[in-house]
Amino acid sequence: MSNHVALARLGLEIAKIRRSCTPLPDRTFVMGMIEMAEFAEIIDAPTANRYRNVLDAKFVERNAEIRSAAA
Q1: What is the distance between the alpha carbons of residues 68 and 42, in angstroms, rounded to a whole number?
Q2: Spatial separation of the C-alpha atoms in residues 62 and 4, rounded to whole Å
Q3: pTM of this prediction?
Q4: How far is the CA of 37 from the CAs of 13, 29, 34, in angstroms?
């Protein structure tokens, strides 16, 4: 798999958090993908941190949506 395909898939998984019914397990899965990409040297540490920041922002946003819908 090329790095471009791996990065595209990672971006897709992060984007899917926005509509996830189960954001915590999905976040854990994507965080593992980021860790593996960093370990395999597909991405460097600063890039991995940017992906983590985007993932965390989308996770917080989705959690807030779910909580407001449940209230």
Answers
A1: 37
A2: 27
A3: 0.87
A4: 13, 13, 5
